[in-house]
Amino acid sequence: VQLQASGGGLVQAGGSLRISCEASGRTFSNFVMGWFRQAPGKAREFVGATVWSGGRTWYADSVKGRFTISKDNLANTVYLQMDSLDPEDTAVHYCAARREVDRAYNYWGRGTLVTVSS
């Protein structure tokens, strides 16, 4: 399994950015795809996740209403649309995957840096 996150960059506070995670190496029909982030000097935190089949999605309270996860099944890609960005959202964002029956995320991609300027 390979996960490749991309699309990070610099954006002003209040702006939007969409980052992508391209997944390869197997079929993901029974997987959960998650997004995590790690800000400088802080622990990694959960952002949101989606079930590949069925589309159930859930988010951390800190991003609920601002961030949206979607996916393109044909492209095997999961997106994180981030709106109303705040400097507190500055972090390296990672995508991860786990089987629905597992609790821990077993597969991780390299992160993509999102920087929000004030």
Describe this structure in words.
The chain has 118 residues and is an all-beta fold. Helices cover 0% and strands 54% of the residues. The chain contains no helices and eleven strands. The strands form two sheets. Strands 2, 4, 5, 6, 9, 10 and 11 form a seven-stranded mixed beta sheet that branches. It has a four-stranded antiparallel beta sheet with strand order 1-3-8-7, with no helix packed on it. A hairpin with a 6-residue loop joins strand 4 and strand 5. The protein is globular, with a radius of gyration of 13 Å.
Number of helices in the DSSP assignment = 0
Instruction: Please mark out the parts with pLDDT under 50 across 5 or more consecutive residues, or reply none.
Output: none
Q: Judging from the principal axes of the Cα atoms, what is the shape?
A: globular
Order of helices and strands: EEEEEEEEEEE
Overall radius of gyration = 13 Å
**Span from first to last CA?**
37 Å
**What fraction strand?**
over 45%
Share in helix: under 10%
Mean pLDDT: 95
Number of beta-strand segments: 11
Q: What is the topology?
A:
Blueprint: E1 2-6, E2 9-12, E3 17-24, E4 31-38, E5 45-51, E6 57-59, E7 67-72, E8 77-82, E9 91-99, E10 107-108, E11 112-117
Short description:
The protein has 118 residues and is mainly beta.
Provide keyphrases for this structure.
mainly beta; 118 residues; single chain; 0% helix; 7-stranded mixed β-sheet
